[in-house]
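Journal club prep — side note

Before the paper discussion, L.F. wants everyone to see what a predicted structure for a comparable chain looks like in token form. Sequence:
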Amino acid sequence: MLFHFVFFMGDAEAKNIKMAAIFQTPIEEPWDGAVHQGCIEASNELNVPYEFTEKVGAADFERVLREYAERGFDLIVGDAFLAGEEPVRRVAKDYPTIAFAFGSEYKPQEPNLSVFDNWIHEPAYLCGVIAGRMTKTNVVGVVAAMPINEVNRLVNAFKLGAQSVNPKVKVKIAYIGSWFDPPKAKEAALAQIEAGADLIYAERFGVFEACKERKVLAFGNMSDQHSLAPEVVVTSACWNMKPTIKYCIESVSNGQWKAQDLREYSMMAKGGAYLAPFYEFEKKLPKEVIAEVKSLEAKIKSGEFIVPIVETRPLSD
């Protein structure tokens, strides 16, 4: 079943531009949820009508894309990973005057398909620093979706961050083989806890339930997930898609759209990635750890410190 939604944002429109988004998962899923939230915020600020469809399966993906194109949408965004990759590239080629911006691990396609991704390896590295400093067992964990580039680089960043401050730390890594399978993610987290992990990076939904049961701390992923489990979520590595979507809308509006890699708009320097507040953990974490993380955060934003981008599949210790 497909779910279609329409947002009407204000009376004025940016040169009559209309934007649509297509999501393969429910928008509750963190990755697509971050894109959707960015679309809402950017379209609201720039007074652009926004419509989206979620839960689009492989069999329907190309059809829904073509329907939006035929209806005259000027900018179409969404996630093209796995099942969506080939349909997006076919449809973009057939509609060269429409701007397409899709999450992809591949290159842009001339003349009109730009690509983006969640470049949240920087805040993930900071989460690793916290984990490396705070672990009492010298074992931490990561529960992730699949070993593809965009997942691998944040898992590697978390591991590198932990090891940078604690050479003795071991990092347990589990891939659940799905973008959205909370029971399987919980099961993987429980196995890591049994193996000694006392802090877990929750790249997927389901980890927090295990952490709450076993009183183990966790890190959120993609969005500020503190409210989901305030007793265990120390902070989150967040993706802010508003800068990317805003840039896309303005480029289309100004007639300057081109096929490009939009990664810089998802980095910390442009506000596309950030570390969520510590909330009550502001008082629970040692002051020196907070100071260390904030100092490193400033160096990342200024370009003084570069978090390594490592996209090979990380090994579990």
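L.F.'s comment for the group: The chain has two domains: 3-116+241-270, 121-239+286-302. Keep this in mind when we get to the figures.
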